[in-house]
Amino acid sequence: MESENQTDVSEFILLGLSEDSEVQPLLFGMFLMLYLVTLTGNLLIILAIISDSHLHTPMYFLLSNLSFADIGLTSSTVPNMLVNIQTESKSITYKNCLSQMYFSLLFAGLDNFLLTVMAYDRFVAICHPLHYMVIMSPQLCYLLLLASWILSVLDSLLLDLMVLRLSFCTEFKIPHFFCELNKVVQLACSDTFLNDLVMYFAAGLVVVIPLTGILFSYSKIVSSILNISSAEGKYKAFSTCGSHLSVVFLFYGTVLGVYLSSALTQNSRASTIASVMYMVVTPTLNPFIYSLRNKDIKHALKKLSC
Q1: Is the dihedral of CA 56, 242, 278, 107 positive or negative?
Q2: What would the pLDDT profile of 128-151 be if each residue is shown by its tens digit?
Q3: What fold characterizes domain 11-305?
Q4: pTM (predicted TM-score)
């Protein structure tokens, strides 16, 4: 028996954050500012780490890659949104939608894995300080980075290819500002059971397992810090992972907000706003979190500006 032919959909309609024409200039200005701040802040972090030899350590190597992933995550969605607002067009071609979906999933997954590797780095630094440079060797850092990229690429590629098997009938309007995977799958008129199954598997691989690794690392870190006798020693140990912990709370809080709002309510607006937080706001705030709380980054940025 022949399989059902896929509908030849040429484009989708992105409804965006608001359909009110009077709000569009405000949205354009706000997201343009956030995007420029994200690019500038994360590029400065990367340049500061590259230019200062004192920052050529595992922690800052991973931080520079996190900044690169944040740039990629924001760049996968915001520029298209700004163009659509400026041209007063809400359409996105089917191919561009798949591309946007792929890169947004890729860099979101990379963010997850890098945050997990950074948590492991802090665990080694605090719980095994004398063996830190031996354990966190350059070879291990490159291997962990390569593994993060491979898992992210395979995950996003699988999810993207799964969309190709779907048929779309008459409804092509996506209630979002970008081609978010779940919203696109919901528009399909063919059976989506296999897609939903793969999405749950991917969520476990990219969100649940990394988050479990982070929680395990920090349980060991907290236990180690509590065993330190002096208050000064406890503060110094905690301060080395304070920035990373802030980013973890910010990123996973908003990611979980997206999943919970999607699962508990049919209000797509709540899910869209939560997506803005982790896709746009979090990458914007990360450079400030690391630069304001880190003397080495501050010093490197001052040298870079001279």
Answers
A1: positive
A2: 999 999 999 999 999 999 999 999
A3: Rhopdopsin 7-helix transmembrane proteins (1.20.1070)
A4: 0.92
